[in-house]
What we know:
Blueprint: H1 4-15, H2 21-42, H3 49-56, H4 66-88, H5 94-104, H6 136-148, H7 156-170, H8 177-191, H9 204-217, H10 221-234, H11 236-242
Amino acid sequence: MDFSKLDTLKEILDKHRPLSKEIVANLHENLIVEWTYNSNAIEGNTLTLQETKVALEGITVGGKTLREHFEAIGHKEAILFIEELVQRGEMLSELDIKSVHALVLKNIDSDNAGKYRQHNVIISGAEHRPVTAIEVPSKIQDFIIWYQTDAMQMHPIERAARVHVDFVGIHPFVDGNGRTSRLLMNLELMKSGFPPAVLKVEDRLAYYKALDLAHTTGDYEPFIKIVCSVVQKSFEPYSYALGL
Length: 244
């Protein structure tokens, strides 16, 4: 797959780095709201974009559940943790995965936050069937080994997409696998200097289809193409802010 267009966009952005504090602050606030809204909405959270912004400011939205508020707040905290990991520049570890998930489910499900599932699951609407609960720890170990070896030879965008697909395919947690996998995907993109890819809720069907195809046939290309398209769009706010 050809990633040259995205590499060129990254090179243009790199020439303007470090970005001014004002631009960074403005883009960062917008990113957190957009990313949190869309990732949670994909999983059924009913907070609108504006309601998500309000919830993240610590204001309760009438008619919305406490869980939905906690999902927004926890996701923001998970993004901030991901950004800390980017600064460290370390290899992804099992502890990082569990820590991200613990934030995603913070104040929602303390019994399962950061802990692997203890029973088998079926993903509604998908052909793919995740591994059994007893296999989860060993499959995560295999995933980490693959990440530290074969994945490091891939283009960052392919690696990020594969991290998402393979991790969510294991489905190691009772809940929060989708949000965690999108956070891990963006961790890889951000470590390599690409903007995070915010998958939009309106593209959920194509996203799910591409995921299931990769899981059932091993054909990752449609999913990687979706990620490429989203990454390309993710450069647009930077171009606008910089007047490019």
